[in-house]
């Protein structure tokens, strides 16, 4: 404390109990899969700060799994922190005994969700759906070569081929290309207006989705997506042939399939 011997202005700093706001990472990823270790914590998001910690907790005796490769690559490129969610042989969407991605919802510092090795349409829908629902994280989708994608070429695809209920985007308030093309030709459709306002019941949605599926909008959207895909493939052809280029071309095919 200063000693006030003479008149004047004194500035005294007093410590308070409030601490400065600490910097927080905005790019913490979570890797989902299995490391192969039989006694690894299942269904519990675990903070990991080093490859050694991961190997001790999750790595099994067998070959490196896609999850292990992804975590290893992460720590080869950074000294940061990530989460690991080992779901064993469970699914991303969860089961009665394994909650899947739902256990990540309470974690507010996750910014990236990656599920290495999960490449089916249902896997993509699970990861994307989780990120869309949380609205504070992005999805990184894995591609294991071009064979991971099998375009159906069917404009009226069913749930098994698309990996989600047909019309699910519209029910969730997401306006896709077929809906836009249908709106251009049927702007006076009262069910469409109801859907755009988000005020429809399930019967109305089903009725509208059925009309869209049997309209010219599907073919128009498929043609537009195919043309965009062909332009993208031509652009990719300038790169040397490699698994990475094949995977990107596979993504283009998958985009053209799922847009309708």
Question: What is this structure's SSE topology?
Answer:
Blueprint: E1 28-33, E2 46-48, H1 51-57, H2 66-77, E3 82-86, E4 110-114, H3 121-134, E5 138-140, H4 159-162, H5 168-171, H6 177-185, H7 190-196, H8 202-213, H9 216-236, H10 243-258
Parallel strand pairs: 1-3, 1-4, 4-5
Antiparallel strand pairs: 2-3
Helix pairs in contact: 6-9, 7-8, 9-10
Quick rundown:
By secondary structure, the chain is α/β, with parallel strands linked by helices. The chain has 10 helices and 5 strands, in the order ββααββαβααααααα. It is extended and about 90 Å long.
Kindly describe this structure.
The protein has helices spanning 51-57, 66-77, 121-134, 159-162, 168-171, 177-185, 190-196, 202-213, 216-236, 243-258; strands spanning 28-33, 46-48, 82-86, 110-114, 138-140. With 260 residues, the chain is of the alpha/beta class. Helix 9 (216-236) packs antiparallel against helix 10. The longest helix has 21 residues, at 216-236. Mean pLDDT is 79; it is low at 145-166.
